[in-house]
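In response to a reviewer's request, we include the raw inputs and outputs for one of the modeled complexes. The two entities were modeled together in a single run.
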Amino acid sequence: AQKITQTQPGMFVQEKEAVTLDCTYDTSDPSYGLFWYKQPSSGEMIFLIYQGSYDQQNATEGRYSLNFQKARKSANLVISASQLGDSAMYFCAMRESNFGNEKLTFGTGTRLTIIP
Amino acid sequence: SAVISQKPSRDICQRGTSLTIQCQVDSQVTMMFWYRQQPGQSLTLIATANQGSEATYESGFVIDKFPISRPNLTFSTLTVSNMSPEDSSIYLCSVARVSGVYTEAFFGQGTRLTVV
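The model returned the following structure tokens for the whole complex.
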């Protein structure tokens, strides 16, 4: 069963607009963590933001914020004031416990293209 | 963040040969992981590299095909053995400083492998 779902394979957004990238997850573990990564065409994975399942506040890191709705099991990434350099693949991931081993499970990604 | 050096950054290999990928971290880390990203796909965990003991492999991955070493807390290698064109992927090393409930996980720049 798909544990992390990213329903937007691709998005085109005008420069300077805000962007919301969707991510829903499925877990029965009460303790989990949600990560967002950016992967430019160079292939590296850049850590953007983290949200823990017990965190009361939504995580923010500069222009990135995470809209965490626990009851709906969603963890959408919001990028404010988008820039051309934001064009990349974006992956949502969940840290889950597998027989005591913590590992990340990734979604299929969203390709974001910022239009000048 | 951790500085992760992964080598080689890319390689083109003949089928039937083996390639060893190195991952060097600038500081001691508790957890090291190896991922595979097939063309146009998301990331899949191959194994968790354990210091001083055998790696923990995910379903579908075996030690004979992907032997892993981790001699200390800053270094690990992944070997892709007896390669076939299906092994053409990006291979990524990832680290987390804290065991268990980690809130940051960083990636190396990846090794882009093409098997001909």
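As requested, we also summarize the result in words. Residues 4 and 25 of chain A are 4 Å apart (CA to CA). Chain A has a mean pLDDT of 92.
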